[in-house]
Amino acid sequence: MTSATLLEDLGAMLLSGGVDVVDLTGPLGPDTPLLKLPPELAVDTPKIEIHRISEYDKDGPFWAWNWLKIGEHSGTHFDAPHHWITGKDYPDGYTDTIPMQRLIAPVNVIDCSAEVAKDPDFLLTADGVKAWEAEHGEIKSGEWVVMRSDWYKRNDDEAKFLNADENGPHSPGPDVDCIEYVLSKGAIGWGNECIGTDAGKAGGMTPPFPAHNLLHAANRYGLASLCNLDKLPPKGAILIVAPLKIVNGTGSPIRALALAPKG
Fold first, then answer.
1. How distant is the alpha carbon of residue 12 from its chain centre?
2. Mind listing the pLDDT tens digit for each residue in 128-148?
């Protein structure tokens, strides 16, 4: 079977509904939860603003359109290597220079929702990933790896989504050895349902923020604030994550989609 035939068959299945198109993206607007950082560490992303230019009125009688104020790393978004100091020297590490072939790939969905329901600080380890592989199959080079936690169900309440107290944020993510192992498998990137690719307590790890630190050092990518991973199988879906072609962009809001087997 040729690649042309495969694409023709895929097109027919999309038209017939034989393949599910799953939206993995959260709503993007003024109420979208945004990362809050200690003021001594960084300036926060500004609140998202949507401003009306016209809506069939004196400012534009036949059309409606808006202008936006938004940070690159807002809502469901893509982290390019240049986002982190460890990835700053890659010429193809910006959103306008990343090879497009790397942004559409099979996805491995590791379900940690039961563990996270018991412990919001749950960390996925390399051993946890290996146990998942023993059940579902090996992670292959060039594939995405994402952590399902069902955290996206908190999306409509920023306080619950950030889940911070006087000791800092409490949200699940990968341990250092998890990211090291995923990289050793040749994964193209890592995704999380939380505000960022790292766990809430990742700042205290060695190295700190391992998903950011290690992924971008390896010229790999991150996905944050993903939704609806519970609607995907552990294996068998194709992930599509296309950032805006922002010149010298460090990241971008995305409309993350997955093509999944029907049912």
1. 28
2. 999 999 999 999 999 999 999
Q: What is the CA radius of gyration of the chain?
A: 19
Reduced to 3 states, what is the DSSP secondary structure of residue 89? coil
Instruction: Count other C-beta atoms under 10 Å from residue 75's C-beta.
Output: 22
The token duo for 183 is 């990289």
Distance CA 14, CA 238 (A): 13
Q: Which of 73, 82, 83, 216 is catalytic?
A: 83
CA distance 228 to 148: 9
Reported as a single tens digit per residue, the pLDDT across 28-77 is 999 999 988 766 667 778 899 999 999 999 999 999 999 999 999 999 99
pTM confidence score: 0.95
User: Is 83 an annotated catalytic residue?
Assistant: yes
Phi-psi region of 56 (alpha: psi -120 to 50; beta: other; left: phi over 0): left
User: What are the structure tokens assigned to 37, written together?
Assistant: 């950082």
Residue with tokens 């799953």: 22
Q: What's the rounded mean pLDDT across residues 146-163?
A: 97
Q: How far from the centroid of its chain's Cα atoms is residue 92's Cα?
A: 19
Alpha-carbon distance 153 to 129, whole Å?
23
